[in-house]
Amino acid sequence: MSKSGHPAIMVGDFTMAHGMRFAPHVHPVHQLSWATEGTVSISTGAGAWVLPSTRALWIPAGVEHAVDVSGPAVFRAVHIDRSPHGWSAPTVVAVTSLLRELAAYLTDPALRGDARRRAEAVLLDVLRPVSAATLEVPMPADERALAVARAILADPSDARGLAAWGREAGASGRTLARAFTAETGLSFGRWRTNARLRAALFLLAAHTPVSVVSRRVGYGTPSAFIAAFRAALGVSPGAYFGGAPE
Fold first, then answer.
1. What is the per-residue DSSP string for the chain?
2. Residue 96 neighbours by CB distance under 10 Å
3. Which pTM value belongs to this model?
4. Rounded distance, CA 148 to CA 168, Å?
């Protein structure tokens, strides 16, 4: 228990329907968040993370963040009144079976006193950071580039280059390239890769086979998709969803 007599760790689950989001907001305490079912995307000023049930994000107190889903999900928020590791920036944490069970155990309102303090201490002790890159997909402001971005998000498998997109959008390929770089901070190629991989993460979380995912997000072969996934996120799809580094 905290000095105020309230639990040091509070656990809450939120059922989120397709397309639902929590708009940017802050908490006065730290938060550890992940999806117990489905996949959630959490964005902060430091970047955006797509989190399956095997990875959580530590969000320090006072850090503004938003939560999005692209399909049904159950979002778990663990509010914690102290940072045992001194993490001052968003940090990805492996959701082990022990962490999962401890969080579920702490949802019991009848759990009090020494038993609760022991469980809280163990939960904090088992938090282990894992390497995880962000997948930022910021939207350009230029109306023509924005139309292209929205079309790619709707169909990540569309392989048209900037010249072809320019003919549809009413701008040269060079103009679109400048707009993406200036307004998103990413080249068009990197932006499209991030958009494809973000879409892939949601599909993989739904247990879609890699062979199907690679085709749906625009890769000619599963091996090409796995190589792109590893280059961007540091591990293979299997390792990412297994919750542990290779």
1. --TTSS-SEEEEEEEE-TT-EEEEE--SSEEEEEEEES-EEEEETTEEEEE-TTEEEEE-TT--EEEE-SS-EEEEEEEES--TT---S-EEEE--HHHHHHHHHTT-TT--HHHHHHHHHHHHHT--B--------PPPSSHHHHHHHHHHHH-TT----HHHHHHHHTS-HHHHHHHHHHHHSS-HHHHHHHHHHHHHHHHHHTT--HHHHHHHTT-SSHHHHHHHHHHHHSS-HHHHHHTS--
2. 15
3. 0.75
4. 9
**Token pair for 77:** 């928020």
Q: Strand order in 21-25's β-sheet? A: 21-25, 65-68, 40-44, 47-51
pLDDT at residue number 7: 65
Q: Which two tokens stand for residue 34?
A: 């992940």
Q: Which band of pLDDT confidence, cut at 50, 70 and 90, is reported for residue 22?
A: very high
CA distance 132 to 123: 21
Name residue 80's beta-bridge partners. 9, 30
* Residue 49 tokens, joined: 């993370």
